[in-house]
C-alpha cells in the first residue's frame, strides 16, 4: 500500500493568500500530511475535518479482521484509524484526534457491492490508493472496486462513492464504533433520508460520562430497496429452533418506523452504472435530530461534494496561513504545518448553526453567543496549546475561555477534561486555572474575570468531599501536600498540578490586587518541597504518617506500568516539573551545578519521556541558568529531529489534542511557554530562516511578529546573538509583552 | 399459594344493572374468575383489562427463576402468566389473551425495596394473596412486603404499590418481555415521567411482523433518585479489565437524555413510610409518544387508582350484563361469565383517543371513524366468536368488519391473522370471508359490501404467486385441491379452509345476485371430496401426481407432532370439517349410519381434540340427522362438563382469543353456529334455566332473546320438546332470523 500526500491543485482557491515562503509558491495547506501521527500511538487520523469543526469523517480500520494489526476490541485502543491496518469497515463520523481513550468514532458509513451483507466482519474491504489533505480523504476499496472520498463542513460530512456497474449498497452501522457505549435508534424518514441517535460516552472508563449524538443521513439517489438490520439476541432450545434469525443480523425489509437496539443499522441498495457516483450527506448535532437536519440543510445547502471540499480547503488554508515560514527543509515545513493542522482540530465547536448546545452536565439546551467549544483535554493543553492559540488565534482562545466560564455557570466547576458537555475527570489537577490566568495576563481580557476568580478560588479552597476538581484538597490544604493513601492514587502527580495551579492563581490574585490571596496561594505553590528526597534526588511519595514511601524506585513507571504516587510516568518524569520555581528547585537540589548535571543526566540516560506531558518542558529549564542555555537549544533541536518527522510515526506518542504538535510548533519557531500561567517564553534555536506570525492588530496592537534567523551553515545549532525589536537581547527568557512589542526577534546562530 | 376470586363489594356501582338471576342479587361481574385458563395452556391471564381494551396489565411470572415451572426462555411459551409459577418480575403492559405464540407482554413494571437491583434474575419475588376480578389484580410480594394492585382504562394502566418503610424502588424493564423482538428507547422527561418506545413483533416467528409500542409512564411521588440501566455488552481482554460494567447492568445515574439499546430500563427510588402507596400510570399508543401521553391525560385525568378501577368494573358489568342467566350452578355461572369475559378481550381497539392508528402494513398514520380493531385471530374466531358478537354486540361486530375492510383499503388484503397493523399470516385459509358473509347475511349491513366482495373475490381468484392469503391458489384453482408439495405443507388443511371460504362466498354471491359466481364458488367448495380416502375413511393428502400420500397414518399429528398435509392435528381432527356439506360428506362416507357411527367413534376413541379448532363443531353434526340429535346434546354437555371448569385448567387448551370460551358460551345457552358463514344454529341442551340476551332493538327489531329450559331433574340431559315464539319446534337447526323473530326459545328436557 502506498499513501499519497495529496498535492491538490487549488484552481478554485485563487483568492487565498498565496504562501510566499520557500520561493516555490506552495500554500501552507499543501504542506499538511494528515498521515503524520497515524501510527506509533500518535492517535491522529487522516480523515476530513474543518478547523475546530464538530464533524470529522475518518476511515475506520480498527475492527473486523485478524489481518488488522491493531483491533479496537482486542486491546486498549483509542483511535479510529491505524496506518498499518488494512481492513476498512466504513467512515466514522465525529472523532477525536490525538487522545488516549476510545470515544466517539461512530455512525459508520460503508459502501459495498454485490450480495448484501450487514455483518462488519464480512463486509469490510482492503483498500489502496489512500490520499489525504486537509478536508479530504480518499481510498479505493479493492474488494468492491469502489472509490471512496470524503469531505466535511464544520458540522456535516459528505461521502462520494464511485461504484462499478451492478448492485451497490450504502450501509450505516450504529452497532459498532470506537466508543465503548452502545445503543442507538434509527428511523427512515423517506426513501433517501434516515435520522437517529447513537449513545456515546464512558470516556476513559468514566461510566457516567454519557451523551447522545443525533444525526440525519441523506443520499442523493433513490434506492431500489432499503431497510434496517439488528443483531438478534441469542436464544436457546426450542425458541432458537423456531427463530432462524437467532443470534444473527436480521434484516427488517418492510418495517419503517423507529428501530432501537445495541447493534442496529440501515442499508440502502442501488442499481448503479459503471462509474456512477452516489453522495451521502451526514449532519450531526448534540442537541437534537431537528438540529442535525438544520445543520445539514444550512451547511450543505445546494453544495455538491466538490464545493464542500473547496470550502473546507479554503478554511484550512486561511487558518494555516496565520504563520508563514521560510527556509527549513520541505520535511520541516511539512512537520510544522501538519502540527499546526493537528493543533487546530480540538477544542472544537459544540453548538449547532442556530447556536443551541447541550449545557454542561445538564439536560438543558442553551443558546450560545459566539462559539461554544468542547473537547478540553486540559491536563495536556494547558501546557502550550492555549498559549499558541492566545498568540495566533486570540479570538478563538478568548471564546474558549468564555466557554469554560459558561461551563462554570452551568455546572459549578471549571472544566478538567470536558467532552461534549460531560466532565470526564480524566487525569488530575486544576488545569483551567493556568489557562485562564495565562490568557488574562497576556491581555485577552474580554471575559468576566471576577467570575473566573470565584471559580478558581472555589476549587482551590473547598474541602475535598465537596470538591469535584481537587478531591484530595483536605490533605493538600492541611498538610501542604497529598500523602499516598492508596497504592496507585497518583498523589504526587495530583499535588504537583495543584502547586502549578496555585501559582497561577497567585499571579492572578496579585494582578487583581488581592495581595493576601496572592501570598497564600504562592506559599502553597511551594509545597512541592515536601516531596523532595535527598536520598534519591527526586520527588518521592509521602505516606500518611509523614514518612517517605518505601521501597522506592524512581524509575518505576517508565513504561506506563502502575507506579505509586505518579501518574503515567516515573519519578524522573515529574521531579523537575516545578516550572514556577525552577530556581527554588535548583537550590533544593544543591544549586545550579548539581541541578544542571542531573537534568542533563535525564536526557543522557533516557529518563526523558518525549511522549507524555509532565517532562515536555524539561529542555527549556536549562535556560534559567546563565551559560547553560545551549543545552536547551541542543536538546530541543535533537528532540525535534528525533521525534517529529514527515512520516506516520512522526509524533512521539499521543498527540493529546495537539499538545505534542504544539511543542514542535513553538520549538520550531524559536520560543516556548515553559511555565503555564506565567506569560513568559524561553527562547531556543528556530528551524526556519524566517517566520511571520500574522497577529490580530486589535488584540496585539501590531499585525505581525517576525522571527528571523541567520544561519551560517545548515548545521548551525546554537544561538550566538539575539535582537528583539532591533535591540540586542541577552536574556533567553522574555515576556509575552516584550515579544509582541519587539515585533521582530532575530537570531544569529553559530 | 392461594388465589382468591375477588368478591368485590360494588358500593360505587349502584347505578349498574343488578343481576337478577339466581336470586342472590350477584352481578355478572362477580362470576368472573380471571384465573380460569391460566394453566393447561389456556394462555389466558388474570391481569386487569377493559372490554376490548388496548391496555392490559398482567402479572408477569414466566422468567428469571428456576423455581418457575414454565420459563419463557426455556421452551415454547406464549403467555405472560402461568398459574403454577411463583416468581414475579413485574407487570407487563399490553398483552395477548389466549394465543399460541409469544408476543407483546413488555413494559415490565416492578416494585422492590432495599438495595437497588436491576437484574430481573435477582429482583424478582415470590408472592401470595393473589386476587383478581375484571379490571383488577393484586398480589403481595413476600420478599419485599409490598402489596401490588393494578387496574386499567381502555388505553392506560395504573399500578398501586403499598410499600413498607424504607427505600423503595419502581423499575421499568424494557429489555425483557414475552415478545421475541428486542430494542427500545427511553427518555426521562421529568423527575416523575418517562417516555419511550419498545419494539415488538416476530409473532409466530414471522420476522417482518414488527411494530412499535410507545409509552408514557408517570409516578405520583417525587423520587429521591432515578435513572436508567442498560446491560453492557461483554468485552474481552484489556477492555474488560478496564470496564467494571463489562457484561453487567450498568446504572446511568446522571444521564437524562434518550437512552436506547437491547436491554434497558428505568429506576426510580423513593423514601417510603410504612404503608405508603405510590401509583404508577402507564399510557400507551401504537402511533406515537405524544398520543400515549394524550391517552394517559384523557383517560386517567383526575382519577386515582380507585376511580380507574370503578370505571373498569362498570364497563365490564355493563358488557357482561348483555346476557343474564338464571339457574345452573355457581360453577356454571362462573364458567359462563368468565368465558364471556375472555371473549370480550380481543379483537381490541387500536386507535388512540384522537382516533389515530397505524395503517395496515404501512407507515401511515390514519384517523378512524369509530373504533379501529386489531388482533384478529381469524382462523380461530371465524368459527364462533364473530357469530356471538354479531348477536350480542352487533355494534362491535359491525365495526370490526369495517376495520377489516379498512385493512383491505390500506393493504390490499383482508386480514388473516392481523396483529397491530401487521399481517402475520399465521395459520391458513381465507377466514375473513365467512366472518363478513355471516355478518352480512344476518343483517348487519352498514358497510361497503361491494368492496368486501371485491376483496373476497380477489383472494379467491388471484394466482398463488400474487396471492397473499391463498399462496397455493394455482393448484387449488386448476386441480380443485392442494397437493402435498412439501412434507409438512399443511396442504389438506389449507384446502379445507378454502372450501369453507368459497362456500361462504357463494352464499354472498347468491345474495348479491351474482348467480354465476355463486355457482362457481359453490362447486369449488365441494372439492373436499378429492381428499376422501375410502381405504382409511378419512381425508388424506394427495401427491402432485394425483396419488394419495403413503404411508398414511390417520392418527399422526394427534400430539401436535408434524403431520404431512394437516396443520396442528391428525386426519381425524379434519375429516368431518366440511360444515357446508355435511350431508354430502355423509354420502361420501356411505350414508347416515356409517357417518354417525364413525363420528361417534371419534368421540369414543379419543380422536376428538377439544383443544384445537378444526373439530370443535363435530358434536353438532349429529343434529343434521333425524333421530341422532341426542348425541349432540350428550356430547356438548359431556365436553362442557369435562373441559370447562371453574379452575385454572378450566379451558381445554389455548383459548384462541375467546374461541374456546365462545364454544362454551353457545353450548351453555343452547345453540351453536356450526357452519361459519351460514346463518344457522344447531340447538342443544342449555345448562341454564333461563337466559336473557339483551338485544339491540335497532339491529334486531327486538330488545331481547329469551331461552327458557324446563328441567325435570338436575340430571335431565336430553331435549324432549322445543318451542320457538310459542310454537312447537321440531327441527334442531334453525336460522338466525327464525331465532331472533321467535324471541323466546323454550326447551323441555327429559
From TrEMBL, chains A, B:
Q: Where is the signal peptide?
A: 1-20
Pfam families according to UniProt: Glyco_hydro_92, Glyco_hydro_92N
Superkingdom, taxonomy of origin = Bacteria
A biological process (GO) of this protein is: carbohydrate metabolic process
* Record keywords: Calcium, Hydrolase, Signal
Question: Which Gene Ontology terms of cellular component type are present?
Answer: cytosol
> Where does the Glycosyl hydrolase family domain lie?
291-749
GO molecular function terms attached to this record = carbohydrate binding; peptide-N4-(N-acetyl-beta-glucosaminyl)asparagine amidase activity
Q: Which metal ions or organic cofactors does this protein require, according to UniProt?
A: Ca(2+)
The record places domain Glycosyl hydrolase family 92 N-terminal at 31-285
**InterPro entries registered for this protein in UniProt:** 6-hairpin_glycosidase_sf, GH-type_carb-bd, GH92_a_mannosidase_put, GH92_N, Glyco_hydro_92, PNGase
The subunit field of the Swiss-Prot or TrEMBL record says: Monomer.
Question: What protein name applies here?
Answer: Glycoside hydrolase family 92 protein
Q: What is the lineage of its organism?
A: Bacteria, Pseudomonadati, Bacteroidota, Bacteroidia, Bacteroidales
